[in-house]
Write a structure and sequence with these properties.
Length: 461
Amino acid sequence: MSLNRRQFLQYAGALGALGALGSQAALAQVLNPQRMQPWRNWSGVQTCLPAHQITPKSLDELVSVIAQSTGTIRPVGAGHSFSPLVPTDDTLLSLGYFGGMLSHDSETHQAEFGAGTSMALMGMALNDVGQGFINMADIDHQTLGGAVATSTHGTGINYGSYSSYVTGLQLVTAGGEVLDCDATRNPEVFNAARVSMGALGVITKLSMQNRPGYRLRETMRVAKTEDLLADIDKHVSENQHWEMLVITHSDYALAIALNETEEPATPAVNKAESGGNEFVTLLEKLDKYGSDFPSARRFLLNNLRHFATFDERIGESYEIYSNIRSVRFNEMEYSVPAEHGPACLREILQLIERNDLPTWFPLEYRYVQADDVPLSMFQGRDSCAISVHQHYSMDYHNLFAAIEPIFWKYDGRPHWGKLHTLNARHLEKLYPQWREFTRVRESLDPQGRFLNAHLRSILSA
């Protein structure tokens, strides 16, 4: 069976219908007929029944909507955050009409996009004008605004998150003021708004620092996790982008390296028709039917490597970075200081094995360069990001609750778009510029119109 990374991660499946609405929501729908369309995120774990779902078509209309609305306003992108950043009973505001490339500069390799632009469309648009992202995450389902708001990232010790490459932005405040922000215009607001979770207002467009377009070569191999960790410095220093997917309840991981090349592209793989479902299905079945026999399950998982080969791929950077994730899941991710990554991962794997925790999704292990953005998970320190996943149909609470204290032990900072249990009292201690961000937020939105219950919990001490 010949597989690539997309196929390794892919699994055919569909979400079941959204569960019945609670009594409060049902009553609200009867009393307010506008509450006819529930919202849910990609995994289905976050839902709400807003009174209004609005998609303004222009900047003037957006300003008017903010001025005339009452209650909480939450901007919504592609719904790919697992944490409850979006849910509100009041107003959901989509920037679906604020999309596309607005301008580009061939000398500076910068480009401006509407904040509602899908990341999946940006790579090709940049390539058409001779540019490419400096780095990309392996999921391009998000909108640009949502990816920047949560400091979404790829991997590579010399590469930051999307937020670190923002050179300018436009923000509409709770008072309807339109602020153009960069390093010289409204610099304090600009600095805070590069990771804001939509708590400062509505970002309508962003300018990104890019680079000339380029191709990447993707190589993959299965190796023992402990062997990979033993040579971790070599792997991350000799490859531009390196990560591994650690197969739980086994001794092995899939190591993935991406490096720039001028060689011609290999034949493209049709994302929609790639045929690696059987591999991931096998992982699921081994967990389902082998969980009562841990030793046998481990033996079988360790020997799966004999049944899979991984083709090398070369293509335009945006084609190689991104993957389709048709297997829905819920996710927790923390970033720990880079030097603590191996120890943190080892402790998580030991806990999963010792307690036979129910999960079959691979753990994702990546590196991200430090930045200077106040609420970026990578502010002031090179980091190792470790992600824990659970299939959407399986309860994630016990698994995440067991593992999360290990992240705390290593001074971990949670990904804003992923599930975690920390509140402002804990988070303030993790971010040196926490109070600076809070001061900016309170000055722009003193009444907290852009704060839902979750944001009040994590931003209000």
